[in-house]
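> @MW can you paste both from yesterday?
MW: sure, first one:
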Amino acid sequence: MGIEITIGIVSFLVGGLLTWLFISKALKSRSEKIIKEAEAEAEVIRKDKILQAKEKFLQLRSEHEKEINNRNSKVVVAENRIKQKESSLAQKLEEIARKRKEVDAIRDNLTVQLELVEKRESDVQHMHKQQVEQLEAISGMSGEEAKEMLIESMKAEAKTEAMSYINDIMDEAKINANKEAKRIVLQTVQRVSTETAIENSVTVFHIDSDEMKGRIIGREGRNIRALEAATGVEIIVDDTPEAIVLSAFDPMRREIARLALHQLVTDGRIHPARIEEVVNKVRKQVEEEIIETGKRTSIDLGIHGLHPELIKLVGKMKYRSSYGQNLLQHSRETANLCAIMASELGLNPKRAKRAGLLHDIGKVSDEDPELPHAILGMKLAEKYKEKPDICNAIGAHHDEVEMTTMIAPIIQVCDAISGARPGARREIVEAYIKRLKDLESMALSYPGVMKTYAIQAGRELRVIVGAEKTTDKEAEELSYDIARKIQTEMTYPGQVKITVIRETRAISYAK
């Protein structure tokens, strides 16, 4: 039993040993096979990597060689450029050196010439001094006196030539501008037609019968006194049949008195209380009519946006006159003239028309009566927010302020055209005669003037000078001086032509 167990154990151990040996041999064979496969695969991978590395190396070397070639070409180009610049710089340096030598030679030559000039100048000054001394000894006059005499002579000659030159320039300007100016003014005037002066200081009120005169006068004259006190108008009742004269310098007062009389005569009730009631009623009606006239005028002229106070002032112009010319009619005429002239000159006709209508509003305002009407009108326009160019045109149309826009001279010209045209205004005889005498006296005050004549209603002044006292050049200068003096010291419509006449008369008698 024990032997069998021992044999079994020994058999088990021998079998296990054999199994282990077989398994070890099999595993060793398997591992050797795996190692060989791995080594073969590693060899393939190594060869691939070496091949890739070689290709990358060749590519990098090619790129590097290309970059080196590019740099070498750039270096060659830069070296060539530098060589060219060095060559050009060398040429310039040689040119500078050559020019420097030439400049040095010229400077040396100029130095020599300057020394010669200084020497000659010294000789000339010495000779001039000797000649001046000889001339002073011969003439008995010092150099300063001779210089002053020469200066005065040259001044007189230059002044005469300047006057002739001024006249030539003015004539040329007139030739070039006169035709166009006449065309514009004539077209403007021909397109505006107005009435002649009809305003006066009295109004004739017609009645149906002379019996009404007694009722207007009233008991002991109480009605006529009440009417005069209420209206401020002098009422003249005389022997003129079927007429009563209303006299006042204010046309508005005369109009109120006329309308009040008309209502009183029509109604038939004439007594102081009724007179006062009717006059107050008529005064309100006239004020409403003033506003309506201002609005109608602005609408007729196409002027919009006027302040209500300016519209009222425009309406008041209907009852004002200047030298017999109705102020509203004058302003409308001036506005139309300004619009036409502005259009001809390429300016804004609406602005010009607005300024032309408002240019005389200072004449109808009750504010600051001591101010000139142009300045007062400008202040009123500024007060009621008119544009600066319109305000300047109003203030400058009589040269009280400086003109700053192109509209201003147009207003001035059209105002003069409206007032100076024949029949526009009545001129007082005494003032007219005084103006003619002032023209003649002003010209007579100049030396060499023998006679003066104001002709063509003061539009031309003829001045006769002595031929032995005045030269032709001095006659031209005299004409210019008189024109400037009249322009600055006198007020006149239109323009005044000054004609200086110089003639020589040879007279002998046969006996």
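MW: second:
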Amino acid sequence: MSLEIAIGGRAIGRGQPPFLIAEMSGNHNQSLERALAIVDAAAQAGAHALKIQTYTADTMTLDLDEGEFHVEHPLWGGQSLHALYRQAYTPWEWHQPIFERARQRGMLAFSTPFDETAVDFLEQLNVPAYKIASFENTDLPLIRKVAATGKPMIISTGMATVAELDESVRAARAAGCRDLVLLKCTSTYPATPENTNLLTIPHLRDLFACAAGNIEVGLSDHTMGLGVAVASVALGATVIEKHFTLRRDDGGVDSTFSLEPEEFAQLRVESERAWRALGQVSYGPSEAEKNSLVFRRSLYIVADVRAGDVLSAANLRAIRPGYGLAPGLYDTLIGKRVGRDVRRGTPMSWDLLA
């Protein structure tokens, strides 16, 4: 099995720095000019990919504002689901200019389809990958439709049980998906660190490692700030998705838990630092540490002694630097006699003994 997967020719895996996805979502605020500015800012901040969402209000829900179709939520409450999706959706005629701008800026660009018509549309635009949102990770017909394209798939795992994920992964594999990324996700907006449960990331990798095809794991992060995302790298996350906006103060359906450009740039720096720090299981001095060995403590003669004198606490101590015998030999040496005159400041060695 390959140790990496590839999206649009870009390798993703533990041998590579984390793959960072900037999620625009509805932060364009229904302005194509702003959407293109978000693309430019994401590229400048170091995102490897730009992701949008492909749906219409009518493909998401019914145009009703009553009962369960009325939203009660701290960020989005006071309106119908249909109205919320009308506000948040990305017009389909914007997709091509957004994708083209992203490619011009050196980023991959793809989308989250929410129904089969969106997949057919995105196939016409030749997207390099597909994302399945947490709320759709049990929609097996949609998963099969996406998997049948043969493109790499990214599935957010928010709310899904192990049994549901197993069913989704099996459906994807059976329908033709070879390259799969599972993202640990907490489907609250914003999410809290306490509800993030990053220890699930290595468990996800182990749980589905035997499934046919290549698999990677990562994090779709709705928490505020960078700490959770950076910590995920230490647990094996190779993909990190964060919502992205120009300025949170500009508003927008997801602006509250989105990163600003300067913050995303810092995520790029810190996530790569975390990845570089992983290294391998290592004990003993590294090559970089070998020059520091001399600053360890070691045993030194700390008072002038004459031939025949007995080593004692008065003339033998563990001090820096590290040119003498190891401090662990102190009890062995105490009471032994020196064989010649020794000046204060001489590193203790076996040839000093009588």
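> thanks! The first strand starts at residue 4 and ends at 7.
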